[in-house]
Amino acid sequence: MAHTHCPQLVVHLLVEQTSLVQPMVLLRVALLMLESRHTRLAGCQDAMMLMYWLPLMLPYMMGLTSSLFQLHSYLASIAIGSFHAVQNGIVVVCSGGNEGPSLGSVKNTAPWIINVAASTTDRDFPSNVMLGNKKLRKGRSFYTNISPAEKFYPLVYSVDARAANASSSNAQICTVGSLDPKKVKGKIVFCMVGINENVEKSWVVAQAGGVGMILSDRQSTDYSFSEPHFLPTSHVSAFDGLSILYPVAYIYGETEVGKVAAPIMPTFSSRSPNPITPEILKPDITAPGVQILAAYSGAAGPTGLELDNRRVPFSIISGTSMSCPHVAGIIGLLKKIHPECSPSAIRSAIMTTARTRTNLGQNLVNETLGETNPLSYGAGHIWPNRAMDPGLVYDLTNTDYLNFLCSIGYNSTQISTFVEKKYQCPSNPMKLLDLNYPSIIVPSLSGKVTVTRTLKNVGTPATYTVRAETPTGISVKVEPNRLKFEKINEEKTFRVTLEVKGDGEGGDYVFGRLIWSDGEHYVRSPIVVNATTLHM
Asked: Whole-angstrom Cα distance, residue 15 to residue 20?
């Protein structure tokens, strides 16, 4: 299935500012998403994928987005192609991957790429169960509302409706052929989550003549997202599932906006630490990527199952492939406002103005409402209005990126894939921790370490003072603690010394923040430290 929804999302974000992007640019983005997806499925060489990047290096193009995943080397096609794009002033945004919550699962980690995680929005798609005793059980689904509304239908447990040749275990999870149409017709069927796809279960119930399905999780830690079922469905929690069997029920719901806590970090979004260079925090940012309305291919049904014969122009999809084009569209707006800004300055503006609290004023959380951290969301959830006026930025040049490659041991032959002319690495390589990145991560700290950063003024003259939210068990010292900027593009350098307090067992990541402010702007950078010895 081609990712037509990715370029369509970018088009949607830019539709009211048609002067931002030339039509051919949008067409080329669409071609990249379609063709490179097929080449990956066909097992073609990286060189063939790279062919689709190079024509995008157009003088009027501002941003490039990719939902393809590559991990093992900065010599892969996406890393090389994106470097050439950045050299030409094009901002490159890539999906971070959907292999969370495992640590180190993040993809597309080159420092010149903006790497995007996925998070929720403040809308939900409830599909609730009203039992005959007037008790409500909350659930989710895109397909809800049995017609006629508020009419009670008989409710049957799938095991009690199993076909003669089906086992109880198969009937419990509503596998294909496990239900008896004579026992299901005209009823709501109660099924359990199991090895087969949730949406397949609703197809099984529909084929057997059912009018609805109640799908129950098995464990209290399970978290359900709405899905495009084949008939009205309510996906309920394991706790509610235990008390839901009743002779009659009906299913109903409507979209809710502004009534749910957001953003929340989903389990699937890939996490840091960066598996190639853990000294660079990835993902950089998180953006809306859960239950997003997007254009959809006519080559497959909305569930992606072969048995799904439905065809829709739009569907509701989750993944970092959805969050990535949100950021690309925002970058198009930022580049229109600030055409002079480099790709790294744009990234810095996005990262340092991000938010780390929900719409309820609480710290960002995961699906089970446990507190999460920058390993999953990077600098935080994107806040476009703030990014228009960041005050200060952490800028990087192409030479900085080449020196980065030198620091990780790339030789002249390897570096020649990134630049046309031969590049001579400096005799004294830079420290990876000193790459002028908008975040600070120390993957292994014993004793103390000092890192260096440089800020560029992109606002009015002002004096900024620093405040540190210190990670647990770590002291943070910033020198100097005041930076006075008298003109535009003026740069000031500062040092951050991180030191472990005392001795003890370490090995866990701890988190803090560095905040520079002139009273109007707040330039925030996450601090992430993995202390090998730490006294708590």
From this structure: 9
Q: What are phi and psi of 531, to 5 degrees?
A: -90, 125
pLDDT digits (tens, 9 = 90+) for 500-516: 987 655 678 999 999 99
- The yes-or-no verdict on residue 381 having pLDDT over 90 is yes
Burial class (CB in 10 A: 0-12, 13-18, 19+), 397: exposed
97, 68 Cβ separation under 8 angstroms: no
Paired residues of 514 in beta bridges: 468, 525
Per-residue pLDDT reduced to its tens digit, 243-261: 888 899 999 999 999 988 9
Which class for 114: exposed (0-12), middle (13-18), buried (19 or more C-beta within 10 A)?
A: buried
Share the mean pLDDT of the chain. 87
Give the pLDDT confidence score for residue 175 in this predicted structure. Answer: 98
Say which residue the tokens 């198009």 belong to.
332
Report the C-alpha gap between 306 and 1 in whole angstroms.
11
Distances (CA, A) of 504 to 33, 59, 450, 527: 50, 55, 21, 21
Q: Which of 99, 100, 107 lies closest to 79 in space, CA to CA?
A: 107
User: How far apart (Å, rounded) are the C-alpha atoms in residues 394 and 153?
Assistant: 61
Q: Return the beta strands (E) in 417-508 as ranges.
A: 440-445, 448-457, 462-469, 474-479, 482-485, 491-500
Task: Pinpoint the alpha helices (H) of 144-246.
Answer: 168-172, 181-184, 198-207, 238-241
Q: For residues 222 and 229, what is the distance between their CA atoms, to the nearest angstrom? A: 19
Handedness of CA 80, 85, 89, 90 (dihedral sign): negative
Listed residue (239, 185, 247, 199) closest to 216, CA to CA: 239
For residue 152, pLDDT over 80 is answered with: yes
pLDDT in tens, 301-356: 999 999 999 999 999 999 999 999 999 999 989 999 999 999 999 999 999 999 99
Name 67's Cβ contacts closer than 8 Å, sequence gap at least 6. 3, 6, 33, 94, 95, 319, 320, 321, 324, 325
**pTM of the full structure:** 0.87
